[in-house]
Specification:
Layout: H1 7-35, H2 39-56, E1 64-65, H3 68-81, H4 83-102, H5 114-132, E2 137-139, E3 145-147, H6 150-173, H7 179-193, H8 201-204, H9 223-255, H10 261-276, E4 284-285, H11 287-295, H12 301-317, H13 319-322, H14 327-341, H15 355-370, H16 373-392, E5 397-402, E6 408-416, H17 421-426, E7 436-446, H18 449-464, E8 468-472, H19 476-481, E9 489-490
Parallel strand pairs: 6-7, 7-8, 8-9
Antiparallel strand pairs: 1-4, 2-3, 5-6
Keywords: Membrane, Transmembrane, Transmembrane helix
Protein name: SulP family inorganic anion transporter
Transmembrane segments: 40-56, 85-103, 115-133, 153-170, 177-196, 226-248, 269-292, 298-318, 325-342, 362-390
Length: 506
């Protein structure tokens, strides 16, 4: 569908796009340092991902770029095999994501439990934090590294603190300027003006301010190469999809709208595929920048297109200035990213949530830190699903009453999904019920396609006996998905709002 814009929407999307481009530059460089990849590759990754997902994605306004979820996985591959193997892994990552989209598997991310999501986010924050500690080490003449000490350490800590102070305090004065950009600029100017001895981006790598060029990864085309890169590609693809689709879900909730996760997965796969062939790192959705767009009412594709154009302009014409940014400033930015990523509210759940839920969240965080994000989320989902099915399948119930018109009213209470669908069907008696029946789902929640089929089958049982049945307080997704019972739904202004995991609307 072709987007139309009012003058206000053009202004909001262009200004927000420029703002995000300025904020992405220091973050892309910082994540490149985490992954030990060339800094220009991280910037190219941000350019390709934000451009392709903005044009082709299923959630306009969501920002994709090089991210922590992908950077932490690339580190081992980069250090052991080199950058061309990273590019090959990014190409395969894109292909895996495209297959994931074609198989319409994105719907399953909608049912990742909250405690698993919290554990994944907190674990990722810790991983990014630990990666920054390497910047507090210096090489020694005898080989190896040691921790900074003395004036070198104090300078590093002081510049990190200055960057973080600017990022936290500037929004109290104005939100017109990106705080992360301001933190990097202020610290850079302080280093230049006072001639502070510290490591800068230019000391680590030279940023060639050129357009990206087509580059087939220089790796042997063999089964051995596939054996090397495939595990990394699967983890990269899974990490990126989980972070992207969880971000998409959050934006859906914030905007009371619905994105298209399969379309977004396809766009992300294409973005990573292209990135790998143009010397870029690829990436996935970024929660922070996406929320900035939502806050600025920049929910059109124009915002991402503007971000991509501005990013490339910065790469081409401002690379010399980027090289003067101190590493300490980037560390400070990443410490802020860690603080804002970590779900501090989850600490309040101890003693308030069931012990099993808290334990699952802690386990997911631990596996994220010590193994990888994909295994962590998979483990958490399996454990949560088993716990959920056990607890909720036995809590499906109905209350029955007859109104003054002789209609039988069933009030459904509980969660309707694959484990409780059979029990749900047995709670009704079409043979003995009167001619008119009302089934009220106000206190129920419909989860998956099995639940939709159970409602359709129940409606068919009543129809075969020539009885009139009405379905009330179903969410919009349910009404769209039903077939036999579609014309039996009664719309109410207080109908619940939630999403159902199903291929037809994914």
């Amino acid at each position: 569908m072709r987007e139309t814009y009012s003058f206000s929407e053009v202004k909001n999307n262009v200004l927000s796009g420029l703002l995000i481009a300025l904020a992405l530059v220091p973050e892309a460089i910082a994540f490149s340092l985490v992954a030990h990849v060339p800094l220009i590759s991280g910037l190219y990754g941000a350019f390709f991902m934000v451009l392709i997902t903005s044009v082709l994605g299923g959630r306009p306004g969501m920002v994709s770029a090089f991210s922590g979820a992908t950077a932490v996985v690339m580190t081992a591959l980069m250090l052991k095999y080199g950058i061309d193997y990273v590019f090959a892994a990014v190409v395969l990552m894109g292909i895996i994501q495209i297959i994931f989209s074609l198989a319409k598997l994105s719907k399953y991310v909608r049912i990742i439990p909250r405690q698993v999501n919290l554990g994944f986010i907190n674990g990722l924050a810790v991983v990014i934090f630990l990666a920054q500690l390497d910047h507090f080490k210096v090489p020694v003449p005898s080989g190896g590294e040691q921790w900074m000490h003395g004036s070198q350490l104090y300078i590093m800590l002081g510049l990190v603190a200055l960057t973080m102070a600017v990022i936290y305090l500037l929004p109290l004065l104005t939100k017109a300027i990106p705080a992360t950009l301001s933190g990097a600029v202020v610290t850079t100017l302080a280093v230049i003006f006072f001639h502070i001895p510290t490591t800068t981006v230019g000391d680590i790598a030279h940023l060639a301010g050129n357009l990206p060029t087509f580059h087939i990864p220089d790796v042997p085309f063999s089964w051995h190469t596939l054996y090397i890169v495939a595990p990394y590609s699967f983890i990269l693809a899974a990490n990126a999809l989980v972070e992207t689709l969880l971000t998409l879900n959050l934006i859906d909730e914030m905007t009371d709208s619905r994105g298209q996760p399969n379309k977004e997965s396809m766009a992300q796969g294409l973005g990573n595929l292209v990135s790998g062939f143009f010397g870029a790192t690829g990436g996935c959705a970024l929660l922070g920048e996406s929320i900035i767009n939502v806050t600025n009412n920049a929910l059109k594709r124009l915002s991402g297109i503007t971000t991509a154009i501005a990013l490339m302009a910065i790469i081409l014409f401002a690379s010399h200035w980027i090289e003067q940014v101190p590493i300490a400033a980037l560390v400070g930015i990443m410490f802020v990213v860690v603080e804002k990523t970590f779900e501090w509210s989850s600490l309040r759940f101890f003693g308030k949530l069931p012990a099993a839920d808290v334990a699952i969240g802690i386990l997911v965080a631990a596996i994220t830190i010590f193994v990888n994000i994909t295994l962590a989320v998979l483990t958490g989902v399996i454990l949560s699903a088993l716990l959920f099915a056990w607890e909720h399948a036995k809590h499906m119930s109905i209350k029955t009453r007859d109104d003054e018109q002789g209609r039988r009213i069933y009030e459904v209470d509980g969660t309707l999904f694959f484990a409780s669908a059979h029990q749900f069907s047995e709670l009704f008696n079409p043979k003995e019920d009167p001619e008119n029946v009302i089934i009220d789902f106000k206190n129920a929640r419909i989860i998956d396609h099995s639940a939709i089929q159970a409602i359709d089958s129940l409606a068919e049982r009543y129809k075969r006996r020539g009885k009139m049945v009405q379905l009330r307080h179903l969410c919009k997704d349910c009404m769209d998905l039903l077939t036999n019972a579609k014309d039996l739904c009664i719309f109410d202004i207080d109908d619940p709002r939630y999403h159902v995991a199903d291929d037809k609307i994914s």
